[in-house]
Amino acid sequence: MDAIRFTVEAQQDQARAGVLTTRRGVIETPVFMPVGTAGTVKGIRFEALESDDLDAKIILGNTYHLWLRPGIDVIKSAGGLHAFTSWDRALLTDSGGFQVWSLGALRKISEEGTQFRSHVDGSLRFLSPEISMEVQAALGSDIVMVFDECAPGEASHDETERSMNLTARWAKRSKTAFDQLQSDGADTGRREVECLSGAQALFGIVQGAGHLDLRRISLQQTVSIGFDGYAIGGLSVGEEKSVMFEVIEDIAPRMPQNAPRYLMGVGTPEDLVEAVARGVDMFDCVLPTRNGRTGQAFTSRGKLNIKNAQFTNDSRPLDESCRCSVCRRHTRAYLRHLYIAGEMLASILLTHHNLAFFLDTMRGVRQSIRSGDFPKFRREFTERLGANGE
Amino acid sequence: MDAIRFTVEAQQDQARAGVLTTRRGVIETPVFMPVGTAGTVKGIRFEALESDDLDAKIILGNTYHLWLRPGIDVIKSAGGLHAFTSWDRALLTDSGGFQVWSLGALRKISEEGTQFRSHVDGSLRFLSPEISMEVQAALGSDIVMVFDECAPGEASHDETERSMNLTARWAKRSKTAFDQLQSDGADTGRREVECLSGAQALFGIVQGAGHLDLRRISLQQTVSIGFDGYAIGGLSVGEEKSVMFEVIEDIAPRMPQNAPRYLMGVGTPEDLVEAVARGVDMFDCVLPTRNGRTGQAFTSRGKLNIKNAQFTNDSRPLDESCRCSVCRRHTRAYLRHLYIAGEMLASILLTHHNLAFFLDTMRGVRQSIRSGDFPKFRREFTERLGANGE
What we know:
The structure is a homodimer. The first copy, chain A, is an alpha/beta fold. The first copy, chain A, is built from 15 helices and 17 strands. Chain A has a 9-stranded parallel β-sheet with strand order 4-15-14-13-12-11-7-6-5. In chain A, strands 1-2-3 form a 3-stranded antiparallel β-sheet. In chain A, strands 8-9-10 form a 3-stranded antiparallel β-sheet. In chain A, helix 7 (157-183) runs parallel beside helix 8 (212-225), helix 8 crosses helix 9 (241-251) and helix 13 (332-340) crosses helix 14 (344-371). The first copy, chain A, starts with a strand and ends in a 5-residue tail after the last helix. The A-B interface holds A 38-40, 42-47, 65, 69-70, 74, 77-78, 84-86, 312-313, 315, 325, 329-331, 333-334, 336-338, 340-341, 343-345, 347-349 and B 38-40, 42-47, 65, 69-70, 74, 77-78, 84-86, 312-313, 315, 325, 329-331, 333-334, 336-338, 340-341, 343-345, 347-349.
C-alpha cells in the first residue's frame, strides 16, 4: 500500500474536489491544515480540533522547531510525533528549510546545507536534506516535505535561478535519503507495529520566486525526480499579491493532475478560495491562530478587530453566519472584555472561531465544487467579505 | 421562595454533607468554587467547566475586578454577569473588600469605606458597603458577600479588634443596603423576567485574625445581624497554618448549623479536606488555576513541577489515579515540552487537570461523608499526598 493515494473526484474549471487517503484517515480536498508549530496548534486543545466544530483532518508540524525543542530523542522515545502529542490523525511536517531561511543573517547556506544558530539556545546547528529526512522520519509524519531553499520575494532572476537549482539538487538528495530511510525500515519514531517502510509520503517543492520561466523549470525539475505530491513554495514572502496569483495561475494547472497540489504558507480566506479556483488542493497558514491571539477575527463579512471600542456593548456573535461553539455562546462585548483584560480565554476563543471559519470555508468550497456551484460560491463569498469593509 | 436553601443531609463528627439549592441549580456540599476573577476562570472554557470532567456547579466572580473592567454599565447592558459571560450556573461574588485591602499602600480606609487607586488606569475610586451591594446587585450574582475589612495575619489584638468592629458596622450597612435593593426590586442586571426581589442571597463574614476571642465576638456580631450564610474571612493571609486551623476548628462548629459555612480563599487540597473535617461547607481558591499557569500540578500523590528535567521522557499521565481528559490523553513528557516551549496549551491543560483534581477531591469528600467513611478517606488521602514528597 502506498503511504497516500489521491483522486480528483470533481472538477470545475481549474477548481478540484478530491480525496487524499492516508493511513490515518481520509482527507477531502481542498483542505486547510492548521499549523501546529511546536507540537501544538497554539491555544487549542486536540479535542477541539477533532470536534465537529472544526474537524481538522490533518495538521502541520514544524521540523525546525521540534528538532530544536524538545529534540528528536524525546519524540522518538514517545514513539513519534503522533504519540508524543496524542494526535492520531494525519500530520504533515515541513522540512525546516523555510524556517532556517527565515533566520536571515543568523544562517549561512552552502551546497551541503544550512548552518544556523538555534533561536532556543544560540547553539550552532546544521540542517541538510539528509538530516531533514532523518528528523522527519523520526517524527513519523504522514507527509514529509523535501528540504528546499527559498528565494526572497524581490529576488533577481539570477539569484532566483541559483537558488532554484540548489533546491533541485537538494530535492534529489532529499528523495534519495528518504527512499533509503523507507527501504531500511528506519526508525520512524513510531511504535514497532507501525514501523513500516513506505509509511511516509514525500512531497517536492516548486521554487522560482516571481519569475514564471524559472517556476516552470523548477516544476519540471521537481516532477522529473518524482514525488507523491507537489508544493508551491516561496510565495507570501514579501512579493505583491498580484505576483503570487500570477505564479499560482500559471503553475498550479501545469502540476501533475493526479497528485495533490499544496500551496505553502498561504493565506487569507479569500486567498484560499482564489487559489482553489486556480487548481490548488492543500493549504496551511498561521493566520487563523496567530491573528486570533492578537484579537483579530476572520468572519464571513471580513476581518474584525475585537479590541475596537465599537464592540464594548455589542451583543452579537463574532460572525452571525457562524455556527461554531464560540459564536453560539459568546458576544463580541464579552470577547472584547477578555481581550482588553489580557485574559488567555480571548486567545483561546478567537483561535477556535478563526479555525472554524477557515475550515468551514473549505467545507463550502468542496461542496460547491462537487455540486457545480463553485463560481457562485466564490462570487458570493468574496462579496460578503467586503461587507464590513475593514 | 428564598434565594437559597441549605440542608445538612449527613454529618460525621464535624464534617457535613449537604445540599445548597439555588435558583440556578442544586449544589452538593462540601463544594469547591473555581475563581473567575474577571468574568473567566483563567485558561478554561465554560464548556470544560460544565463537562463531566469538572462539572463545577458554582464559580466565583470578583466585584473589584469587574467593577473596574469592563465596568458595571457593560455588564448591566448585557443583562448581568451570567448573561455577559454565558455562565448559567450559580455565581458567588466577593465584595471587593479583600481586593482593595490587598492594595496595601494604594488604599486608605475610613469609616465610610475604602479609597484606592485602580490598578487598571490609576484613577481614584471609592468602595463602600453601599456601593459594593449596588455593584453586586448589578452583577446579579446568586450569592453576594458583605463588604468587610481584613486584618493582616500578624495584626495585634487591638488592631484586629478595631478592624473587626469596623467589619461589623460595614456588615450592618451591607445588610441594610442589600435589603433595600432587594425590596426595591432594583436593577439586578438581569433580564426583566428574572429581575425579582429576593433573587440574591447575602453572606456575612467573620473576621478577627488569629485571635480566637475576637473571632467568637465577630461571629456573634455577624449572626446577630442575620445572613443566608456565613463565611470565615481573613485566613490564608500570612498567618501560620496552625493558627489557621485553630481558628477554623474553634469557629466553624459554632457557626449556625443550618446555614452554609464558607472558608474564603483557602487552600490546598489537604487544607480543604482538613477544613471539611472541622465543619466547613464551601471553598474558593486560585491555587488550581494560578499554579496551573506556573507549571505546578496537584496530584493524588502530591505536587509536581512539570518543568523538572525528570519528566523529559516520562510517558505517565500527571496523575495515574486521575480520569480527567488531560490525564487520559497526555503524558508528562508532552506537558513538560509545552511548558518549556512557553506554549499556552501548557496552562490550559494544567489548569484543567488541577481543577479536575480539586473538584474530584470534593466529590470523594462528599461521598465518604454520606457513606460514613470520611475518616478513612481523610487518612488515605493525606497519606497518598505524601507519596511523591515534593
